[in-house]
Amino acid sequence: MQTSDYQTIEQSNQLNQVVDFLPINGTDYLELYVGNARQSAHFFQAALGFQPLAYAGLSTGLQDRESYVLEQDKIRIVLTTPLVGNSEIGKHIDQHGDGVKAIALWVDDAQQAFETTTQRGAEIVYEPITETDEMGTVKRAAIKTYGDTIHVFVERKDYRGVFLPNFKAWNPIFKPESIGLKYIDHCVGNVGWNEMNRWTDFYANVMGFSQLVSFDDKDISTEYTALMSKVMSNGNGKIKFPINEPAEGKKKSQVEEYLHFYGGSGVQHIAVATDNIVKTVVEMQNRGIEFLQVPDSYYDTLQQRVGKIEEEINELRPLGILVDRDEDGYLLQIFTKPIVSRPTLFLEIIQRKGAKSFGKGNFKALFEAIEREQALRGTL
To answer: Nearest 5 degrees, angle CA 68-CA 273-CA 45?
Structure first.
């Protein structure tokens, strides 16, 4: 992407901030429906360094579900499990396995966000509700997006509690140290054939997002597989949603594999930022997290491709950390193998050194690494 392209995007974003009809302060939380919230919480603590925050379940008056809330810096993860059979949560897990149900967006006015988006065509999940306890009031409302994923608008300016009303503080003895994750950089959605433009139009027309960048099957392809992607961003740039769809290839692409095992469209990966990717990745490996690996030859010409960087290449090489550069700087990134049983949800660890892009120069090496994993699973 040329400098002029980024200047155009920045001008567009500045305009959107002036006329932004859906101001969003950031990601409030991600809620995952999982088969065993207690065990999943232990994984997020032990392997990913999340800290215990809050709990809701039988002891707080809930009869049908329990939820564990964990945080790390600005990231909040909610892990929810049904407590009874034949529930909507259970049906979601039966179809999709463990996965992201809700991307909650922090807003100043949940009623206004709900009314604005539904007037523009958003499908209602639930109308604004007011939840209250001794610590104050939270207002929430929800709309549908791709697949069974939803967006929840969260207004919490009048709340002083630990998370949401009727959650209690969760303070176990087991508290492994953080691994340096800071905030959610972006969430990537996989959608079905010919659905990408439908959902980018949804984010543009219903939520006021603008297209940051797009990639076609010439940008994202290998000898065997391909996909297409567009990145949508809100007015202040704090929320970024790349949307992927399959493209024709000789073999089954990663998006097709995802759609098969997830049972439809959904969140493919969560990109989380760190200020020290080397330290974070080393700690994650020490705690049992496995990453996709690129051939050692990737690093032989790295200096020529990306120019001077602050990190030592010999430090990045054994870890498999990728590097890419754009007009604004460079970024470092690495991708985990799936963190759930199905080959669906995974994490991206990213450190931005000025770069605003998404690692286009690494696509080929990354997707070949994914294909090697698909071949091992017999799903390529």
So the answer is: 30
Task: Give residue-wise pLDDT tens across range 263-314.
Answer: 999 999 999 999 999 999 999 999 999 999 888 888 888 888 899 999 999 9
Q: What is the arrangement of strands in the sheet containing 266-274, beginning at the earlier edge strand? A: 210-215, 226-233, 240-247, 181-190, 266-274, 346-353, 329-335, 322-326
DSSP H helices in 103-195: 110-119
Distance, in Å, from the CA atom of 106 to the CA atom of 190, rounded to the nearest integer, reads 23
Which among 268, 281, 269, 239 has a CA at the least distance from the CA of 49?
281
Check if the beta carbon of residue 16 is closer than 8 Å to that of residue 235.
Answer: yes
State whether residue 31 is helix, strand or coil: strand
> For 220-246, how does the pLDDT look when each residue is reduced to its tens digit (9 = 90+)?
555 555 668 899 999 999 999 999 998
If phi over 0 gives left and psi between -120 and 50 gives alpha, with beta otherwise, what is residue 203? alpha
Burial label, 152 (beta-carbon count in 10 A; 0-12, 13-18, 19+): buried
CA distances from 25 to 41, 43, 118 (A): 26, 29, 20
Compute the distance between CA of residue 195 and CA of residue 197 in angstroms, rounded to an integer: 6
Torsions phi, psi for 336 (to 5 deg): -80, 160
Residue whose pair of structure tokens reads 């027309």 in the numeric block: 205
Q: How many CB atoms lie within 10 A of CB 275?
A: 12
DSSP line for 291-349: B----GGGGTTHHHHH---SS-HHHHGGGT-EEEEETTEEEEEEEBPPSSSSS--EEEE
The two three-digit tokens of residue 124, written as one number: 């209602």
Q: What pTM value is reported for the model? A: 0.91
| Max Cα–Cα distance, the chain, nearest Å | 60
- pLDDT per position as a tens digit, 22-78: 999 999 999 999 999 999 999 999 999 999 999 999 999 999 999 999 999 999 999
Q: Which of 4, 8, 48, 46 is nearest to 30 (CA)?
A: 48
What domains does the chain contain, in order, with CATH numbers? 18-169 (3.10.180.10), 181-377 (3.10.180.10)
